[in-house]
Amino acid sequence: MTAITGVGAYAPRFRITSEAFEEAWGQFQAAGVSEKAVPAADEDALTMGYEAATKALEAADVDPAAVDWLGFASSTPPEAEADLTARLGAMLALDETATRQLFSGSTRAGTRAIWASADALESSATTALVVAADAPKGDPDDGVDHAAGAGAAAFVVERDGPAEVVDRAEYAVPYPGTRFRNAGEAETQGLGVTQYDRAAFTETIGGAVDGLEADLEPEAAAIQAPDGKLPYRAAGAAGVGTDEIQAAATVHDLGDLGAASVPVSLASALADGYESILAVSHGGGAGADALAIEADGEVPAETALEGDDPLSYAEYLRQRGVVTTGPPSGGGAYVSVPSWRRSIPQRYNLEAGRCPECGALEFPPAGACSSCGALEEYESVRLSGEGEIEAVTTISQGGAPPEFAEQQSRAGDYAAAIVALEDDAGDTASIAAMGTDADPDDFAVGDRIETTIRRIYTQEGVTRYGFKVRPAA
Amino acid sequence: MRDAYLVGAGQSEYGAFPEESYRSLFRTAFEAATDSVPRGIEASDVDEAFIGTLGVGGRQLGLSGPAVTEHVGLGGVPCTRVENACAASGFATRQAVQAVKSGMADVALAGGFEIMSDMSSDATKYWLGVSGETEWERLSGTTFSGVYAQMASVHMEKYGTTREHLSQVAVKNHANGAKNPHAQLGFECSLEDAQSAPVVADPLNLYHCCPTSDGAACALIVSEDVVDEYTDDPIRVAGVGASSDTVGLFQRDSYTGVPASQRAGEQAYEMAGVEPDDLDFAEVHDCFAIAELLAYEDLGFCEQGEAGDLIDSGATELGGDLPVNTSGGLKSKGHPIGATGAGQVVEAFKQLSGKAGDRQVENPTRGLTHNVGGSGGASVVHIFEKDAETEVSA
Known about the structure:
- The complex is a heterodimer.
- By secondary structure, chain A is an alpha+beta fold.
- Chain A contains 15 helices and 21 strands.
- Chain B has twelve helices and eleven strands.
- In chain B, helix 2 links the parallel strand 2 and strand 3.
- The longest helix of chain B has 16 residues.
- Chain B is globular.
- The interface between A and B is large, with 45 and 46 residues.
- Strand 17 of chain A pairs antiparallel with strand 5 of chain B, so a sheet runs across the interface.
């Protein structure tokens, strides 16, 4: 048996409306989308996945070390080659021996990961974590980009629990040219052959749903939503009404979430208390997965899908890096990738040290104690991720190190602070940290903050991730 | 230990000089220093040299000391490059004093240089941040403007220091720099100008930040055994203090002061047997306006938290009780990183020799120089004192 025992969902804080697109282009090509989520310049599928996964683990009250299977799904992984599950697993403090699988290459990837978790639980796995995160991108004048949103969902899946995956089926048939991205390209495209695209969409969805053996009368239907109209066109094929699709729809407010589209809708439906849910994905090429979920009672869920920071279209292009030129060349200060890697326990997991001589916390835990000067081995202590601002500034244009010039071009001024981070006993260690997720004016001396993980900067083609701070929730 | 004396000091102009190399600027400073020695000095008299430079641009990162001393005819003289970020040549001066006091040298040259203006602004910024704590402080998105702005944020929160106080530092130092022919930004600015400039790192705006500069400076330190060969009006190095600290601000207990400067100041006062009240002028490290205010407190010119009142009172203006940064300071005179500490010694020499022109302090007998590396990872303080109470006309 396979059951969802915890749900997490996340969407970035930025929103752009269909009106803003109309103002810029004279038209908006994503029918049924009234506004959509836009990832901040320091966000990508990995960081959004981290946000959702953290919430799912909290909701399920599962110790990350107990997770023995991790699946990460995205049609836009920040690296086309490299095992991102290693970094995601480390950010979440999973055990190094947990099985990890990466799912990509299609907007079906999210449901493929749920599918694979069910297979794993039917063999040796006991606690699976499925993370689907996506931020599709198209050419600015293409409908794919007009629809493209951003978001993530994560599920803790175990052998027994409140929301059981009672049935699953899949279907695939060749429809080349529907939705694709060639190797080396950053923008997803489609030929836009309207009737052909619709045929691919409804045939695969119908085929997958027809494969289900369970006799379903779903209250909510989480259907793949490349825009706000297409899922409703598949209502007949999926055997549901528009009300059921509407009940689980997130596309109208968040846009096309790619491989996270069905997972976020499923998370939203579970959080809303629907007890019978049909989840059907679709990916270009073309194929579909259908999952039937029956919930018995409340499913623990933590979702953060709201956002109220509006962007103009020009700001949208900046945040997404469409109109910026990338980091300047230079020399001087340099942190090698190996030395960055040595700091990963601090960057991802806030590993501090307690001085055996004076008991003070040291962060990073290396070298002589800055409180008493003792040069001893520290006792490892994990900080909580909560704390207070001790000193802060807002870095304006010209005040940023050149490594951050591209981020500043995209996201504007940012806060840079010294924060006192607390351990469970209430002791603190001070550390420099960049502000994120809020206007720089929202950071002041004495304010409470919490940490999250974001892109810090990219050098030599390698993106370095680590903690930043934001106002406490 | 025997006494050490400052018998000459000189500098190039500070500014942007596309026609000059680091060597040619150093030559200008070296010749100005030797020319300033009252009874003259020969290159062959120099026993040892210490040269401060950060190496911005990487143009001669290795052996940058000998590269300039051999250029001015000091080939064969032992030469060591001293690197302590913005305090490089303040520490080079201290090394020269140590060499002389120890008996290893009778005549020691302390100098410094930097070229910062011949690169793109992006390349310059890569080099500006290199003395910050790299792995954490820089990668939280700060260069020094950000780190000093953080210190300002706490000082303002804790003591009620204001943006206007910061701007007053700029107004004062520009007023002084306008009287210094070597100053890079030798113009006066109004309080309104200094308050309305674009923000760099809040609360610091452009007028609260020193410029990037090309320049060189040299000082000649000699022993008590030979001082009479060079001058009738000896200026004694009465006090020296130095200290180091964590490179990153976040690792310190206090963000409202520079502990290394406090320790360096205490040492220098104790060695000189004087107190802040005994000073007639001071050149302090005002890389950012808040840094000058912190220096007032760290060096005992006022109590902790009262720097805003002190700048308000006018006491640190030319003509006040304790004129600070008569040269214009880093803000107006300029800040060619490796040259700055030796350049402060040049101002002390000029003031104590009565050669400071329109910015001459009336009849000074004792002055202090204060040179900080980074946000306070290194700090060095010197107190110079005229041996005899010879009159200097204002």
